[in-house]
Write a sequence for this structure.
């Protein structure tokens, strides 16, 4: 081949498709793209072969040095060289040597020499290479590389066809049995007959074992839907409920059925080996073709058993996924046909043809089988693209969690692309490395299916275990009312984190299966170990933070719980514990974020330093805020006011509804809500602390008797004490200090009634109502503002007449 494809020579290109293109043109473009995909690896393979040849020469020099290093091997090599020199001199001298030189050069292309070239020739070659180094042609066009790759691929196919035709023409010629590597036709017939007998015995045994296993499958199918003898109640643990669930029974039945199927295959293979060893051919001997068929049978049938375990056409409950019988039968039979044709064709038919006829014919048969499977698969995928997508989208609607629903919807949109890529890779790999293609694809496919299956199984099990609400005991829920809700609030984010990590692990395992990512090397590397350790540390930190927060919040809730072994919590305790809970939450979240950032490799020293600078700036620039916080802390520590207290703060009188670390919210009698920062509070008047007084000043007219007025005030208090609702709120007897002041309307009598905190206003309203009624009944006048008109009198008591004048009407 004239050129070598270099990766840096590949440039992006676009295939434009006009509106007038027809379907045959699209098919031609598809197969042209396929030939390009196959031809490019062939060119790269040619380059790697040339590199391996140069590496082999280097290895031969190392082997020669090892031979010359030991005295015994060196002497043996010298004696062999002298023997060869004597033989060459006797057989014709220089002329014979010169005549055989071209033949040696031709033979050397297909054989490997055991003796290295002389040091002189090696040095001359090295000098030639050094004087004329081969530089990569960076300006080689991409089209030239593609043309070379296609030319190499077509040339190899053409050579295989020519060699196959020559082998077919020479099949009729007699072969000598004494020639090495040749087998007479009679022997071939015997081998084929023995192979057919072993194949028949193996297949018959397989069907017999499968018929016996069908009863086991039927019983497993019925066992899945059988009702447990003792259904789990609500108090049963999650693990016990899962063991008795339908999901658990289905998982066990599917795995058991697959193991029975594989056991039937292994038993059939054992029967085949027994027939080959003791019933066919020479006793206790088995040839390569017979062993090859039995091994291929076991491998292919195990692959088909996996397909049957997923789709299970005959037993609907043993299917891994819920689907209709027609769908399961169609895809199960289709995959079994593809596996059978590809497996038996590549593992049995191609080796037999290569051995019996010609390696070239076997290679052409390999190409025909793989192209046939590829075209058949692409056609089936194209025809069922929409139906499979609709089925997956319908199945996504019934998914148990949103995670599975989203995953299935994404798969519904890209499943055909993944399938086409899979069969394309299979075709290309089978042509690049025909000996390793099928084992590689089988291993990669099996690892992919196992990774996806185990990942889905783990996600399903974990989701089913935590799908139900976690229930605590009645006593624990009474003492810690918010603990159950808090624990259940941790479940959704924990499940999301588990699904994310599980999906990442599955993706890495799948990439490792297709050699796109070396998982074991990455795990052993420093970077991989650091990522794994950091992930584990982050998970442990989050768990510890959640435990600390749950413990602190549970202790606070236990103290605030109205049903507790201790006394009822006071309003001060409620306020302080609420503030402490909020502060603890802020501290735990901040420390957790900093520690997690440090574990994932982020330097938190600048963050801490920045936080210090920001705190200093806030301290200077927001002095009011700092004053609010400090004043609020001391007010709460000194129990200045609590929620539901009636206070007067900053000229606002009302009920405390909300207290934070920075401000207090007060609701006044008119319904207004006032938010007052603590920095503006210089005095707190609390009217609901310990006890209170009804403080009253009752005005009496001057003409009334003071003692009589006090007597009726006491009578009003006695009647107040008869009130069953207000009497418990009165702590002491009425206190009447006496007349406290004289004024223009009369005199004031002071009354003090000690009440429970917050009850003084209700007692005041009731007592005033009773005082008004008692004073009215006794005729005691309560003065009110009025004007008295009096006429002047002389010393003898005579009143001067009041002059009255009639006014004239207006003109």
């Amino acid at each position: 081949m004239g050129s070598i494809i270099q990766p840096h020579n590949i440039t992006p290109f676009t295939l434009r498709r006009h509106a007038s293109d027809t379907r045959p043109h699209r098919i031609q473009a598809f197969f042209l793209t396929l030939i390009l995909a196959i031809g490019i690896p062939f060119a790269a393979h040619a380059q790697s072969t040339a590199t391996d040849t140069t590496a082999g020469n280097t290895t031969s020099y190392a082997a020669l040095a090892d031979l010359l290093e030991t005295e015994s091997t060196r002497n043996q090599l010298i004696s062999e060289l002298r023997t060869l020199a004597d033989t060459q001199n006797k057989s014709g001298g220089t002329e014979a040597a010169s005549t055989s030189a071209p033949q040696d050069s031709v033979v050397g292309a297909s054989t490997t020499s055991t003796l290295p070239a002389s040091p002189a020739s090696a040095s001359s070659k090295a000098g030639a290479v050094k004087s004329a180094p081969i530089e990569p042609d960076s300006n080689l066009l991409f089209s030239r590389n593609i043309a070379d790759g296609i030319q190499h691929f077509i040339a190899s196919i053409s050579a295989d066809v020519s060699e196959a035709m020559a082998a077919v023409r020479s099949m009729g010629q007699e072969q000598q049995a004494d020639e090495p590597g040749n087998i007479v036709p009679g022997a071939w017939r015997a081998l084929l007959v023995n192979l057919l007998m072993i194949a028949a015995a193996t297949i018959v045994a397989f069907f017999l074992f499968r018929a016996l296993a069908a009863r086991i499958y039927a019983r497993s199918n019925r066992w899945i839907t059988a009702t447990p003898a003792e259904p789990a109640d609500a108090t049963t643990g999650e693990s016990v409920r899962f063991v008795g669930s339908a999901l658990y029974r289905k998982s066990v039945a599917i795995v058991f059925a697959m193991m029975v199927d594989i056991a039937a295959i292994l038993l059939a293979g054992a029967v085949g080996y027994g027939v080959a060893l003791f019933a066919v051919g020479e006793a206790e001997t088995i040839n390569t073709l017979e062993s090859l068929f039995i091994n291929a049978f076991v491998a292919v049938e195990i692959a088909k058993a996996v397909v049957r375990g997923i789709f299970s056409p005959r037993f609907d409950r043993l299917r891994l996924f819920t689907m209709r019988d027609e769908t399961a039968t169609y895809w199960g039979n289709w995959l079994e046909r593809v596996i059978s044709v590809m497996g038996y064709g590549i593992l049995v038919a191609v080796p037999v043809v290569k051995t019996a006829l010609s390696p070239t014919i076997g290679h052409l048969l390999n190409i025909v089988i793989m192209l046939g499977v590829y075209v058949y698969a692409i056609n089936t995928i194209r025809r069922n693209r929409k139906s499979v997508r609709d089925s997956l989208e319908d199945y996504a609607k019934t998914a148990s969690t949103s995670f599975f629903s989203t995953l299935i919807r994404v798969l519904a949109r890209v499943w055909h692309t993944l399938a086409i890529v899979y069969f394309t890779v299979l075709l290309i790999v089978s042509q690049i490395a025909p000996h390793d293609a099928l084992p590689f694809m089988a291993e990669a496919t099996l690892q992919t299916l196992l990774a996806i299956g185990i990942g889905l199984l783990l996600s399903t099990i974990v989701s089913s275990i935590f799908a139900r609400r976690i229930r605590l005991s009645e006593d624990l829920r009474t003492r810690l009312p918010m603990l159950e809700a808090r624990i259940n609030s941790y479940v959704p984010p924990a499940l999301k984190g588990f699904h994310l990590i599980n999906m990442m692990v599955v993706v890495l395992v799948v990439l490792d299966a297709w050699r796109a990512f070396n998982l074991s090397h990455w795990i052993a590397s420093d970077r991989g170990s650091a990522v794994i350790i950091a992930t584990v540390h982050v998970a442990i930190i989050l768990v510890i933070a959640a435990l600390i927060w749950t413990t602190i919040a549970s202790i606070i809730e236990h103290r605030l719980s109205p049903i507790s072994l201790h006394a009822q919590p006071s309003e001060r305790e409620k306020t302080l514990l609420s503030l402490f809970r909020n502060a603890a939450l802020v501290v735990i979240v901040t420390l957790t974020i900093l520690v997690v950032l440090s574990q994932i490799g982020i330097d938190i020293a600048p963050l801490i330093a920045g936080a210090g600078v920001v705190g200093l700036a806030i301290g200077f620039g927001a002095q009011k805020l700092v004053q609010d916080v400090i004043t609020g802390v001391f007010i709460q520590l000194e129990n200045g006011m609590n929620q539901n207290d009636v206070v007067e703060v900053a000229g606002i009188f009302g009920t405390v509804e909300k207290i934070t670390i920075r401000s207090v919210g007060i609701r006044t009698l008119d319904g207004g809500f006032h938010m007052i920062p603590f920095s503006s509070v210089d005095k707190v008047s609390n009217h609901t602390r310990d006890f209170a007084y009804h403080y009253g000043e009752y005005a009496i007219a001057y003409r009334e008797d003071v003692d009589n007025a006090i007597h009726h005030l006491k009578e009003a208090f006695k009647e107040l004490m008869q009130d069953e609702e207000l009497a418990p709120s009165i702590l002491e007897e009425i206190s009447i200090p006496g007349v406290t002041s004289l004024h223009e309307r009369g005199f004031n009598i002071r009354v003090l009634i000690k009440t429970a905190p917050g009850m003084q206003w209700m007692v005041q309203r009731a007592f005033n109502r009773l005082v008004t009624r008692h004073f009215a009944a006794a005729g005691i006048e309560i003065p009110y503002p009025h004007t008295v008109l009096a006429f002047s009198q002389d010393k003898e008591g005579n009143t001067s007449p009041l002059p009255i004048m009639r006014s004239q009407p207006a003109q």
